[in-house]
Write a structure and sequence with these properties.
Maltoporin, Chain A, 20-stranded antiparallel β-sheet, mainly beta, 0% helix, 30 strands, two-stranded antiparallel sheet
Length: 492
């Protein structure tokens, strides 16, 4: 559900209230085994924004925002079932000023505060009639504040400068229990307790950024930029299984903020009176304080512990180039975007200390969007997307023990298997009704995934033991085959 209300208080004041609520539910049951999945997740958000015009040179936007993200994953095979759930709730208050002291200057400044409530990852498990106690729900709380200023200055027709600085502070606070684990058994041996509001860890930082544009002539320009950024929320991806079990975790007394430095250089060129827009942009980024799960970790391992007790830390870097072509005028229009990129990481405790590609390393990413207007009332559209598949760590060998258990051997190689690429084509035709001053309408006929591509979503292993013979089969789950739809839009 989407809703929005705008109210004009006066010539200088307006209020905007908006909200969104959505839930997705995915369920799967294998027709020839006991493997099953249930994955519900969703978002809810509400925003109240006040826009005030002080003068024709200064105005502000002040917003109060509530957001909630919930994710659950429940899977089972034979007598064993497992449930994982996580989420984030944010209470956000920010005010943003825009000041234009002269035609050459565009200054933006403001402040932002967020109160985070994290449920990083909690689990429950059951085997037959036996329920396993995996501990109470662990929550983490944090203050996230920032002050910023940015000035875009046009020196002359050739040179445009953009510079700014952002002061940030992230603080994890109680109530919180830090469980001290035995290094051999991973069982808790001691607990450090923090009361409500008590500081657990505080990270103040400065984030500078600078960009420059040089206009070679009326149709082409060069752009360069440099920025430093701290990210206080981490994505923890479990590469040992291809199931969607990613969780968001905050910086803490154990997890330091991610720190990235990025350089970019681009060339932009327009042709035929700006009918065609083209650009080539290259970038290089270094990243510190990256996180990964330790070798052999599974979500059910975190018995009575903190999730970040099972992290290891390292560094990363990424580089690549983006190519863009757009036709913005005429009955036939559209754009093509292509990104060629590499992302690498290096952790002393993983992959024998050698560099490796992380789960979401994506070599190729292509988007093609085309539109053709057949007169004023009929519009044809087509979209094609292509993306390199994600990486996963799958076992290289499996051993059958005398008691019937199967042991997996990963061979020490991180992310040794890349899933098939994702690609699909969508087509549509829109017929616009006769417009009047009081009413507008249109019909849209579309087909999603027109050539019925079975893109990989999950890969799981179906293991069977029959008279000492082990049969192992990798099976793929796909979402959304060819899907036609009809939409009627109207406005009055």
């Amino acid at each position: 559900m989407n809703a929005k209300v705008n109210y004009r208080l006066s010539d200088k004041d307006r209020v905007f209230i908006s909200g969104y609520f959505g839930r997705d539910v995915f369920k799967f049951k294998s027709p020839d085994s006991d493997f099953s999945l249930s994955i519900p997740w969703g978002n809810a958000t509400a925003t109240a924004r006040w826009n005030h015009l002080f003068s024709n040179k200064l105005f502000l936007n002040t917003s109060a925002i509530y957001t909630n993200y919930d994710f659950q994953f429940e899977g089972g095979q034979e007598q064993f079932s497992f449930k994982l759930f996580s989420g984030i709730t944010d209470y956000n208050l920010k005010t943003d000023f825009t000041w234009v002291p002269s035609p050459q200057h565009n200054v933006k400044f403001g402040a932002n505060y967020i109160y985070h409530v994290f449920v990083p990852s909690n689990a429950s498990a059951r085997s037959g009639d036996v329920n396993f106690n995996l501990g109470d729900i662990v929550r983490q709380y944090a203050h996230d504040a920032a002050l910023y200023i940015n000035d875009e200055y046009e020196l002359n027709a050739k040179w445009l400068f953009n510079g700014g600085v952002r002061l940030t502070m992230f603080q994890q606070v109680g109530p919180f229990d830090r469980f001290i684990l035995d290094p051999l058994t991973d069982l808790p041996t001691d607990t450090i307790h923090y009361d409500k509001g008590e500081a657990v860890a505080t990270y103040p930082n400065i984030e500078p950024r600078f960009a420059v544009r040089y206009s070679v002539n009326e149709s082409s320009s060069l752009k360069a930029s440099y920025s430093q950024n701290y990210q206080y929320i981490h994505l923890a991806s479990l590469s040992g299984i291809s199931l969607p079990t990613d969780t968001w975790v905050p910086s803490s007394d154990r997890v330091k903020p991610q720190f990235g430095t990025q350089y970019a250089l681009g060339y932009f060129k327009n042709f035929k009176n700006n009918t065609y827009e083209t650009s080539i942009e290259a970038y290089y980024k270094t990243m510190k304080n990256q996180i990964e799960y330790e070798e052999g970790f599974l979500p059910e391992n975190q018995v009575n512990g903190n999730l970040d007790n099972f992290f290891v830390f390292g560094k990363g870097w990424s580089y690549g180039a983006e190519f863009f072509l757009k036709k913005s005028k005429g009955r036939f229009s559209g754009w093509i975007g292509y990104t060629l990129a590499w992302t690498k990481r290096e952790f002393p405790e993983l992959n024998l200390g050698k560099e490796f590609y992380p789960k979401y390393d994506r070599r190729h990413d292509i988007s093609v969007v085309l539109t053709y207007e057949l007169g004023k009332r009929i519009v044809f559209g087509a979209t094609w997307v292509y993306a390199t598949g994600n990486l996963n760590t799958f076992p290289e060998k499996l051993y059958l023990l005398s008691n019937g258990d199967i042991v997996q051997d990963y061979g020490g190689q991180r992310n040794n298997y890349r899933m098939d690429p994702y690609h699909r084509m969508d087509i549509s035709v829109t017929w616009k009704g006769i417009e009047s001053k009081k009413f507008e309408s249109s019909w849209n006929f579309s087909v999603f995934n027109v050539y019925n591509r079975y893109n990989p979503y999950i890969i799981y292993f179906d293991n069977k033991v029959d008279n000492g013979v082990v049969t192992i089969e990798a099976k793929q789950i796909s979402l959304f085959p060819i899907l036609p739809s009809i939409t009627y839009n109207f406005k009055f």
